[in-house]
Specification:
The complex is a heterodimer of chains A (317) and B (166). Chain A is α+β, with helices and mostly antiparallel strands. Chain A has four helices and twelve strands; from the N terminus they run αααββββββββββββα. A six-stranded antiparallel sheet of chain A has the order 1-12-3-4-5-2. A six-stranded antiparallel beta barrel of chain A has the order 6-7-8-11-10-9. Chain B contains seven helices and no strands. The chains are: A alpha+beta (317), B mainly alpha (166). The interface between A and B is large, with 50 and 45 residues.
């Protein structure tokens, strides 16, 4: 039975006229559409991003406490083992880095000889994922650095395995990143083995990307590595995106569909790297395990010692 | 009858619900996370309809959307639907035993899961996974405890208000 409608007072508590339900339902749908399209509610989202800070910090406390307790109670043996493992990985990474720096130098010289555009630098900044469950269905995470630290919208984000996502919203001290697994995200990729160029879409599953509309004659096999192709100007070229897991006909039978497993560890929380310079693609860059603020000029030795304690010690978070 | 302390309790319960919604969980447990805010508003719509109306549900939902990071209007829609259904059938629901109420809560959140699926599939075709009902089951199991807790808090507030000299 409809409640008493005193002048359609929308906020009268306890009243339940279906008309009011309809009004609020329509309003909600309108808001969702506006938010989905992205542009109309930027201002609101920006304000909300600032107001969220205390909630985010508060909600992250229990996890922080749990981790602290875990660390305090960790067996000495486990810690020693971890430390040894990190030392070894670090040594391997350093060796690789030296080799790749040499390759980069050679690459720059060759480009010069060929009169090609010089490859640029790549700068990364270390960021920590704030441990908050930001609606997993939307595949967003929050970083603890923002515009104060030089983060801008549109910057690519990578982790130790490969491409992680892209910055979408920036506040003074935090930024929101969309993961490559988000159904609304697409990244141009290149098959390392065959050179085939395609676009990898997120599927909503953390462990799966999909490449659609591949022609039947295309050269794609399971096991192929996919890297960013640099097209679109957002992601620099050459970063690992994933590995092809299966290739099959699509529903219509006209094109092929390939599925890939992302190289980045999307489900892990911890640290990521925000790529700050996007003006040039690097053909032979260092592996993404670079340390914070590592700057690699084209023709000189690496400046920063990648052995700064933080990334290795922080991987267990 | 809107008492200030009652409004404060509603506010505090909503804040706690939003924090619980943001609490990081291992990925495996994510599907089991109930819609805390929904549970809280169902309780207040049932027991204290004077403090929650459709308008309040809408505003609280919008605030939650902004804080948690969901699409703006998504939780607002879900909460408005939940509160409407509860207010609509309040006379019947009020006097059910707590166990029957739990079943009703299950039905309400199953309906909510359906709503969520519809909303999500607008962005990308999402297959309704079996585990979307898990959240409803968890909500059903939590209902008696939440009911008792909030009832207790409200009773304390009323006693405190009654005892205060005017």
């Amino acid at each position: 039975m409809a409640g008493r409608d005193d002048g359609l007072n929308l906020f009268a508590a306890g009243e339940t006229s279906p008309l009011r339900l309809l009004i609020f339902l329509s309003l909600s749908v309108l808001l969702m559409v506006a938010d989905h399209q992205g542009q109309l509610l930027q201002g609101v989202r920006a304000v909300a991003a600032e107001l969220r800070q205390p909630f985010i910090r508060l909600a992250g406390r229990p996890a922080e406490l749990a981790r602290g307790v875990e660390r305090t109670l960790a067996e000495r043996e486990d810690l020693v083992d971890s430390a040894q493992r990190y030392e070894q990985e670090l040594m391997v990474a350093k060796a690789r880095l030296v080799r790749l720096t040499a390759i980069q130098r050679e690459n720059a010289e060759l480009r010069q000889l060929l009169d090609a555009r010089p490859a640029g630098d790549i700068e990364v900044r270390l960021a920590q994922l704030l441990d908050v469950a930001v609606d997993p269905a939307r595949h967003r995470v929050i970083l603890d650095i923002g515009s104060e630290q030089g983060v801008r919208e549109g910057l690519p984000v990578i982790d130790g395995g490969g491409v992680f996502g892209q910055v979408v919203t920036v506040t003074r001290s935090t930024s929101e990143v969309i993961l490559i697994s988000d159904p609304g995200h697409a990244i141009p990729v290149r098959n390392v083995r065959s050179g085939l160029r395609a676009i990898a879409y997120g599927t909503g599953e953390l462990g799966e990307l999909v490449l659609r509309d591949i022609s039947q004659s295309a050269d794609v096999n399971p096991g192929d590595a996919l890297v960013t192709s640099g097209y679109g100007g957002v992601f620099p070229e050459g970063f690992p995106v994933g590995e092809v897991t299966e290739v099959a006909r699509d529903d219509a039978g006209v094109f092929m569909v390939a599925r890939a497993r992302p190289a980045a560890m999307l489900e892990r929380s911890g640290h990521v790297l925000v790529v700050e310079s996007i003006s040039a693609a690097v053909a032979a860059g260092p592996p993404p395990e670079a340390a914070a603020e590592l700057r690699l000029p084209p023709a000189s030795n690496p400046v920063a010692d990648p052995a700064s304690a933080d990334p290795a010690g922080a991987q267990d978070r | 009858m809107k008492q200030r302390s009652e409004i404060a309790l509603v506010g505090a319960a909503c804040v706690a619900a939003v924090l619980l919604a943001m609490l990081p969980m291992p990925v495996v447990l994510e599907a089991w996370r109930p819609f805390w805010l929904g549970l809280v508003l169902i309780y207040f719509a049932l027991e204290a309809p004077g403090s929650i109306g459709l308008g309040a549900a809408f505003l609280i939902g919008c605030a939650a959307d902004l804080l948690v990071g969901t699409l703006l209007g998504e939780q607002a829609l879900r909460l408005v639907v939940l509160v409407f259904l509860v207010l609509r059938w309040r006379p019947r629901l009020r006097f059910q035993s707590v166990w029957l109420q739990s079943l009703t809560v299950l039905a309400l959140f199953a309906n909510d899961a359906l709503l969520v699926w519809v909303i999500r599939s607008v962005e990308a075709a999402v297959v309704p996974a079996v585990d979307s009902v898990l959240a409803a089951v968890v909500a059903m199991l939590l209902w008696p405890w939440l009911f008792l807790l909030l009832d207790d808090l409200r009773a304390r507030l009323r006693r405190r208000a009654a005892a205060r000299p005017r």
